[in-house]
Amino acid sequence: MSEIWSLFGSKIASILFMWAMIERYMPRHFRNFIDRFSQQLDKLLNPYVEIKFFEYSGSYMRSSDTFSAIENYLSSKSMAQARKLKGTSTRNSLVLKMDDYEEVTDELKGIKFSWSLRKIVPMEKSLSVYPASEKRFYRLTFHGRHRRFVTKTYLKHVLDEGKAISMAKRQRKLYTNGNGDGYSDKIGKWSHVIFEHPATFETVAMDPEKKKEIIEDLTTFKNSKEYYAKIGKPWKRGYLLFGPPGTGKSTLIAAIANFLSYDVYDIELTAVMSNAELRKLLIGIASKSVVVIEDIDCSLELTGQRKAETSEKEEASDGAVGVVKKQAEEGKKEKKSQVTLSGLLNFIDGIWSASNGERVIIFTTNYVEKLDQALVRRGRMDKHIELSYCGFEGFKVLARNYLSLESHDRFEEIRGLLEETKTTPADVAENLMPKVGNEDPERCLERLIQALKNSKEEATKKIEKEKETATIEESSGEGEDTEDAVKTCSRV
Ligand SMILES: Nc1ncnc2c1ncn2[C@@H]1O[C@H](COP(=O)(O)OP(=O)(O)OP(=O)(O)O)[C@@H](O)[C@H]1O
Ligand SMILES: [Mg+2]
């Protein structure tokens, strides 16, 4: 056996020696021919193509987005197929990824692909100040006949899916603009906290039809990148939410942001000093975001003027106290927002608004009739959604959320009372919420029924009082009319 091995070794050594000689003295064109021939032979024997995607790329060794998108794309396949996995923990959860040299397969439209995680380990010690590190990369292998499909379709599919997974997984943020205290470094800048509002469409109490319509609208919007590009419209959508306080406008905004997995930019318009500052804020808004301006009626110039007029009247009547008040007011006035309606309209759909598309802009108001029609016209605010008092369907959602009740004997009684009163979902929720640790759902329902009965009674009393006042006014009005008539007659 040892003889065979030594014979084999010496044969190999002589072949290598011969090859080195041939390579050295062979004419170049002949060598090129052999290279081409060996490549053709390799193609014939191994029809598979490989693509490598390195973890770090570029001269600054930035972590590659493509690598992390592939990592996300392969995560579920790794969980199902890989025998060796690596666990890393993020803020919220534990993530499992395939270990080095593991291999998984994927399939799209009947074509099979193989992915493996490899690394290049440096052979020598680096002289650089930075220690030489391993270069990790994903290797994609596929049959050469699918080359076109891979470059045109498959890689796009992998990257899109991978990015979508990382968008859904990422820690979302709630941004707000500077606190308006005049610090120059805050002007036109956003500060943020982690967005963790738990509201979802399942927990929002509203008419099921309306809810379905909103979900469909948002889904269509989210999947319409190409459509918006085709019709030449910036990829954004405007929502106007209106209704009395406590009907769920802010809750719905959180549900929308959670549904779309977008960040939220909550603009405090009164803290924005000028249109230019508003534009700066707009430029700082990333794509995939919900931009919110709450109580838009209170932020607009019109309302501000009305308030200013009132305070001036008060000052006039207050005398000396009024002077002190006036001085304080003047100090405040210097810092008053100069954002105009046209500045706001530009913010919504001016040329700058098209940068970083994929945005939903939401305005909320308690008084829709106060708003300038230019601001809320269709095209700017594409969808007007009224959030109203709690109906029976809304109540059922709240009963499920707060008491885990699907049905109960007292539901019919509550249905009747809700129809006869104007109760906000916030009030219903407050009454349904158990007040002590393990409060019986029966008691919570009883509390709600009592509250509804009280509100019904109050409403009846109010109507009666209004009727009384109207009768008194009518009778005194008649007297005035007669007086007027007498005066007019006497003048004649
Ligand atoms: N439609 C709803 N579905 C579920 N919960 C609701 C709903 N409406 C109100 N609530 C409850 O009432 C609270 C107040 O609601 P929310 O802040 O969304 O009302 P709003 O319409 O934004 O009021 P405002 O006009 O005063 O800003 C919420 O924290 C939530 O618990
Ligand atoms: Mg609100």
Summarize the model shown.
The protein has helices at residues 2-25, 28-45, 65-81, 147-169, 208-222, 225-231, 249-260, 275-283, 296-299, 301-318, 320-334, 341-349, 373-376, 392-403, 411-420, 425-432, 441-491, and strands at residues 48-54, 56-57, 62-63, 85-89, 94-98, 103-108, 111-120, 135-143, 173-177, 190-194, 236-242, 263-266, 289-293, 359-365, 383-386.
The whole-angstrom Rg is: 35 Å
| Cofactors, ions and other ligands in the entry | adenosine-5'-triphosphate, magnesium ion
Query: What is the number of strand segments?
Result: 15
Largest sheet: 7 strands, mixed
Taking strands numbered 1, 2, ... along the chain, how are they ordered across the largest sheet? 10-9-12-13-14-11-15
Discrete helix count: 17
Let me know the average pLDDT: 82
Work out the strand percent: 15-25%
Parts with pLDDT < 50 across at least 5 consecutive residues: 180-185, 302-328, 482-492
- Derived structural class: alpha/beta
| CA-based shape | elongated
Give the end-to-end Cα distance, rounded to a whole number of Å.
Answer: 143 Å
Percent range of helical residues:
40-55%
Describe the model:
This protein is of the alpha/beta class and 492 residues long. The chain is 52% helix and 17% strand. The protein has 17 helices and 15 strands. The chain has helices spanning 2-25, 28-45, 65-81, 147-169, 208-222, 225-231, 249-260, 275-283, 296-299, 301-318, 320-334, 341-349, 373-376, 392-403, 411-420, 425-432, 441-491; strands spanning 48-54, 56-57, 62-63, 85-89, 94-98, 103-108, 111-120, 135-143, 173-177, 190-194, 236-242, 263-266, 289-293, 359-365, 383-386. A 7-stranded mixed sheet has the order 10-9-12-13-14-11-15. Helix 8 runs parallel beside helix 12 (341-349) and helix 14 packs parallel to helix 16 (425-432). The N and C termini lie far apart (143 Å). The protein binds adenosine-5'-triphosphate (ATP) and magnesium ion. Adenosine-5'-triphosphate binds next to helix 7 and helix 16. Residues 249-250, 294, 364 line the site of magnesium ion (MG).
